[in-house]
Structures are given as C-alpha cells and as structure tokens.
Amino acid sequence: MFLDGLIIIISYAASWYLKFRTDLFSNEGNALSRRTYFGALIIIVPLYLIIYTAFSLYTSKRTHRIRYIMNNILKANVIGLLVYLTMLYVARQQHFSRTMMFIFFGLNIFNEMLLRILIRKGLVFIRKKGFNIKRVLLVGYSRAAEGYIDRVKSNPQWGYQIAGILDDNVEKNTEYKGVRVLGRIDSLLSILPQNSLDEIAITLGLSEYAKFESIVNLCEKSGVHTQFIPDYNRVIPTKPYTEDLQGLPVINIRYVPLNNTINAAIKRIVDIAGSAAGIIVLSPLMILISIAVRCSSKGPLIFKQERVGLHNKTFMMYKFRTMEVQPEESEKKEWTKRNDPRVTSIGKLLRCTSLDELPQLFNIFAGNMSLVGPRPERPFFVEKFKEEIPRYMIKHQVRPGLTGWAQINGYRGDTSINKRIEFDLYYIENWTMWLDFKIMFLTIFKGFINKNAY
Question: I need a surface site. Which of 111, 147, 221, 398 has the fewest CB within 10 A?
Fold first, then answer.
C-alpha cells in the first residue's frame, strides 16, 4: 500500500510535468497553480488506495494468475478516474486539466502493473531460496488431497510446502509424490507443537464427511488458519457458486450465466440481428444452393429433422437436403457414415463446407436456436447419451447453436461425444458475449470446413 501511494504520486507528478512542462500536449487552459494541482493529491492518494482495497489488491495473490491482478488494476483505475472526474464536475472545477488526468490514468496503470510484476518476480526468487514459504498440513487422504498436491508441486512459485497428510484409513508412511501420511487425524494436536505450520487444509473424502464437524473443531483448537478443499470434483466438475438464503449458504451445483435475464436478453438481441443480417446477405448464395439441390436429386429442398433444444423441448431444425429421400424411421436412428451412398454429389460438398446448415438462420430468428451454443441432437440419441455420458443433459440449459466452442475446437461430426460435452459445459459455465463473438470469428477460419462430415 505504501508503494502504491508512492507510485500514484510519481505518476501524478510525471503527468503534470508532461502536460505543463513539455511541448507534447497543448498548454491552453493552464489557469491553476502548481500548488492547486499537487494539493489534489490529498484526495487522490487515499481515494485510489480505498478503491484498490475494494478490488482486493492487498490480499494474498500466491495462487492468482497475473492476468487477474492486471484486470483488477485496470478496473480500479477506471473507477478512480470516473470518481475524480465526477468530483471535479460537482465542484465546478472546469479549469482543472482533464487531459492531465487522462495522462495520469495511462501512466498510473502502467506503473502499477510494472510494480506488481516486479514484486511477483521478487517473491518467486526468494521462494526458490526457501524464504516466504507456507507449510500446509492436509487432513484427509482423498482425490481432493491428491489434486491439491499435484497443483502445489507443479506451481513452486506459490511458495507452498506440504508437511504431510493425516488420515484414519490410509497406512502411515504411505506416500504420494513425496508427501507422506504422518498418522491418524486425532494426532493433530500432538503434531502441531512439533511443526511450525501456517495452514491446515481439510481434504476429507466424500464418504468421511460425517467427521467434518469434529475435525473443524480440532483444527480450530490449534489456532492455525484452516481451509476446506471439497472432494466433489466428480460430482460437481466445474465451478459452483453460493447464495445466501437468510443466513443459510446455498451451493448451486451449476453456474449458468445465461439464466440471468439481462444476459439472455442481450444474447437474444444479437441472435435476432445476426440471423436477420445473415438471411439478407446470404440469400443469393442460398438461392444458388437451392437450385443445385433441386437439380441433384428428387425431393424437397429443405430437410426438416426433430432435434432437442432449450429445456429439453423439441423443434424442427432446417437444413438443405444433402441425401436421397429415405424412410423417416431409418433416418431417425442412423448417423451418416464415410462414403455413405445416400449422400448426393452436391450434398457431399454442402456437408464438408457446412453450407447445408444455412437454413438454421431461420431457426435462430424464430428463437429455436442461437448463433452460438451446443449443437442440438436427435431425440433418439439424446435418450441414448443421457444414460451413457455423465452431465450430457446440462447442454439443454441453453439454446442450441449454429456453431459452438466444441465445433471450433474440432469436435464435429464423427468425433468423441465425451470431449464435445466437456467443451459444451465449459461454454455454458463461462459464457460471455465476448466469448460468443470470439467463437463466431473463429468459425470463419475453423468452423466451415469439416473433415468429419460425411
């Protein structure tokens, strides 16, 4: 905090100098004295330090990525600038140089980020020398304990050293990646005086949660900081989030940003605008494809097929017909194979370039689909996969898409369903409008040509 205060003063002084003592910027409107400008630091320094505190810039960052810290510095400085400019407006200080404040904004962000990088590198250096180390004792041998050890071992820059594990079911001196089981859990109070521990991590297996309350009481008697690492990775494989129900913490197993009304409305507006623009711009191409389909074989231009969409509701998805007309029952239960004789000559080209999917722009406009989302599947295969693939049905918590995160990562057509669901779940739980734009952009380069489409 002291260093931040110093950086703020240096950045501010440099901004004043660049604005009023160099020819880099116009000096028009220099109606205030130097004392007035530097007197403002009495407000600016504490204001920025309070905002930095609000953005958690003074909490431990051992395990945080540098990008997280940089984002918080940027956000804090944006808020700081907006607050100070608002204060100038309310105080009617029209002569105070806004240009200087924007110079300060840029310089301060750069200097604060540079400071954090240097501090981070300095901490990594001294941790490699054996200083600034936190010794941690694990209580409970489980998948969570092994996962914790894996991460600590692969990130020595965090400065964690695992002293050992206590467990009631695993034999003493059992080792995992150099970390030994020291004894039973009830030996915690006798072990504490022998070790200078900084933290205790409760890593019990799911089957041992009945002991949880007594172990917490035992740990708190030690006076050492205690944390809990739940062993639910296979039950809740991604990040859950908590709510407060009048003092009762509620853990939501699945976080879906598109359950938020505003997020869903923004995505729907983009879908309507994007599909309408696509229909207009691509209509000449769709007319040419229609003529080609009509000339290639007898049958309808558009192939309609039942698919499962949002909230498990079925809808009719549209495609350009790429196959010979076949009985409906056989079509429902069979995927297209390599060199499938049912695929027409023009159909093969449409499939490998994904141009057969263009009519789905009308599905998007109607609200059955979205521009981006998990690809929809036929009801027969949904019933099959939901019994075989864990968490398969979660994909139906959002609208299916014309393209998706799995598709641009190569999981289209005849590829691993498990990997496809893994990428779909990542998209569902990490959705942002920017992620949608990224996927749409990458689809141009990765999404159209499909070597797995038969």
Answer: 221
SS3 assignment, position 200: strand
Residue found under tokens 């196959």:
323
Cα separation of 182 and 163, whole Å? Answer: 9
At 67 the three-state DSSP class reads helix
Tell me, rounded to whole angstroms, the distance of Cα 342 from its chain centroid: 42
| Helix, strand or coil, per DSSP, at residue 225 | strand
Of residues 197 and 70, more confidence is placed in 70
Asked if the model's pLDDT at residue 191 lies above 70, the reply is: yes
- 343 C-beta neighbours (distance < 10 Å), count: 19
- Residue 372 CA to residue 352 CA, distance in Å, equals 19
User: β-strands 241-245, 248-252: how paired?
Assistant: antiparallel
The string of pLDDT tens digits covering residues 328-385 is: 655 555 556 566 667 777 878 888 788 889 999 999 999 999 999 999 999 988 888 8
26: how many CB neighbours lie within 10 A of its CB?
Answer: 10
pLDDT at 335: 55
Q: Strand 179-183 vs strand 175-176: parallel, antiparallel, or unpaired?
A: antiparallel
Average pLDDT rounded to a whole number, residues 290-299: 85
SS3 136: strand
The single-letter code of the amino acid at 112 is E
Q: How far apart are CA 349 and CA 293, in angstroms?
A: 11
Cα radius of gyration rounded to whole Å, the chain: 30
**CB-based contact 385:295 (threshold 8 Å):** no
- Spatial contact of 271 and 364, defined as CB atoms under 8 Å apart: yes
Do 347 and 322 meet the contact criterion of CB atoms below 8 Å apart? yes
Beta strand ranges found along 253-387 (DSSP E): 302-308, 314-320, 370-372
Q: For residue 382, what are its two tokens?
A: 């949904």
Phi/psi for 348 (5° steps) reads: -60, -45
Q: Which of 167-176, 262-271, 312-321 has the lowest mean pLDDT?
A: 167-176
Give me the DSSP letters along 429-441.
Answer: HS--HHHHHHHHH
Can you list the alpha helix ranges (DSSP code H) found in 155-196?
188-191
More confident residue, 68 or 73: 73
